[in-house]
Design brief:
Bound molecules: nicotinamide-8-iodo-adenine-dinucleotide, zinc ion
Pfam family, one: ADH_zinc_N
Number of helices: 11
Strand content: 25-35%
Cofactor: Zn(2+)
Distance between the termini: 36 Å
Number of strands: 19
Structural class: alpha/beta
CATH architecture of the largest domain: Alpha-Beta Complex
Shape: globular
GO molecular function, one term: zinc ion binding
Number of domains: 2
CATH class of the largest domain: Alpha Beta
Order of helices and strands: EEEEHEEEEHEEEHHEHEHEHEHEHEHEHE
InterPro entries: ADH-like_C, ADH-like_N, ADH_Zn_CS, ER, GroES-like_sf, NAD(P)-bd_dom_sf
Helix content: 10-25%
Radius of gyration: 20 Å
Enzyme class: oxidoreductase
Length: 357
């Protein structure tokens, strides 16, 4: 097999944040830099967003086990520094992104119909394969996100999971321009991006989250209304009251990382409305009254990241300047602090880590 083409003088060791045991703090240490396989690329990750999914992986609270030891992270933006011998459509020096879907078989019926996230052989960045909390990360060339050179790598990092996921979820909701969506968990990482995508898609936004910081942030991102789930005595009637005719929003995009809102959304969407479940709180169940769901013809569905086309579209919204969600940046070495803040629900928007620090 032909050797990969590599940028000269790459290091053989690099800094990474490693989950050695679930439920324990991550360990900042040096690990080897791997060489890409024939269908893979090696990306020098400059910035990576920190998604709540990474915290689920550290906590080990989902039903599918993580690889261990594990390098987490799946919102990595950087520069291509290595190309497997079969890779033809990416060049050394290109900007590229590593997403949650690191690779899929490209052959099964789901891959054939552009439902790659449903592929049973999908490799998941920062979960079943090492992800972006390291300086040099590998992904399958077919799934690497192509990032135009004019994009800022720090600002685009959160688009690579949060942006793609909420853009897909908004499409899955079938809400049309001019209609109203409730974004539940609007003050978090996915939620802040959802506000921006919903605004760009011509939707009116009811943001649901807790606290003054998140109220102010979601208002600046385009939300017309805010329902504070921590202060409200009746979230369902407050959400309905935020719509002009009192019938409730056309869709609810539920990106919260707790169970309760998944049990409320079907009660406030309007007849023919849809509930799109995106957040993945551990051990949680959806709940809806059968009677009302039937006679209001409510749709309840799940939405899981996006396919390669959704990813390219979500990046194009960013390239056109339509997506400006707030983020704070810190060093990769400080990742555990970000997890601690996230666990407490104390992050408005997204944290991005700079892998060089
Ligand atoms: O493809 C997918 N379906 C996908 C992709 C990426 C992430 C799913 N996720 C999942 C994550 O695993 C996580 O479970 O989406 C969830 C949210 O991820 P995130 O946006 O990265 O998490 P965050 O930044 O911590 O934001 C969560 C927000 O939810 C709010 C919090 O205040 C926070 O702002 N929230 C909670 I917790 N309970 C709430 C409630 N009852 C609530 N907001 C409204 N009502
Ligand atoms: Zn994610």
């Amino acid at each position: 097999m032909a050797a990969p083409r590599m940028t000269p003088d790459l290091p053989t060791e690099q800094w990474a944040q490693v989950v050695e045991e679930t439920g324990k703090p991550v360990v900042y240490k040096k690990i080897p830099v791997r060489q890409p396989g024939p269908d893979e690329v090696l990306i020098n990750i400059k910035y990576s967003g920190v998604c709540h999914t990474d915290l689920h992986a550290v906590n080990g609270d989902w039903p599918i086990p993580t690889k261990l030891p594990l390098v987490g992270g799946h919102e990595g933006a950087g520069v291509v520094v290595g190309l497997g011998s079969l890779v033809e459509d990416i060049k050394l020096g290109d900007y590229a992104g590593v997403k949650w879907i690191n690779g899929t078989c490209l052959q099964c019926s789901f891959c054939q119909q552009a439902d790659e996230p449903l592929c049973s052989k999908a490799l998941l960045s920062g979960y079943t394969v090492d992800g972006t909390f390291q300086e040099y990360c590998i992904a399958k060339a077919a799934h690497v996100a192509r990032i135009p050179k004019e994009c800022n790598l720090e600002a685009i990092a959160p688009v690579l999971c949060a942006g793609i996921t909420v853009y897909k979820g908004l499409k899955e909701s079938n809400a049309r321009p001019g209609q109203t969506v409730a974004i539940v968990g609007a003050g978090g990482g996915l939620g802040s991006l959802a506000c921006q995508y919903a605004k760009a898609m011509g939707l009116e936004i009811i943001a649901i989250d807790g606290g003054e910081d998140k109220r102010a942030m979601t208002a600046s991102l385009g939300a017309k209304h805010f329902v504070d789930f921590m202060a409200s005595k009746d979230v369902v009637s407050d959400v309905k009251a935020a719509t002009e005719d009192g019938l409730g929003p056309h869709a609810a995009i539920v990106v919260a990382a707790s169970e309760k809102p998944f049990q409320q959304a079907a009660d406030y969407v309007r007849p023919r409305g849809s509930v799109v479940a995106i957040g993945l709180p551990s051990g949680a169940y959806l709940r809806a009254p059968v009677f009302d769901t039937v006679i209001k013809m409510i749709t309840i569905k799940g939405s899981y990241v996006g396919n390669r086309k959704d990813s390219a579209e979500a990046i194009e919204f960013f390239r056109r300047g339509l997506i400006n969600a707030p983020y704070k940046t810190c060093g990769l070495s400080e990742l555990q602090k970000v997890y601690d803040l996230m666990q407490q629900g104390n992050i408005a928007g997204r944290y991005v880590v700079d892998t060089s620090k």
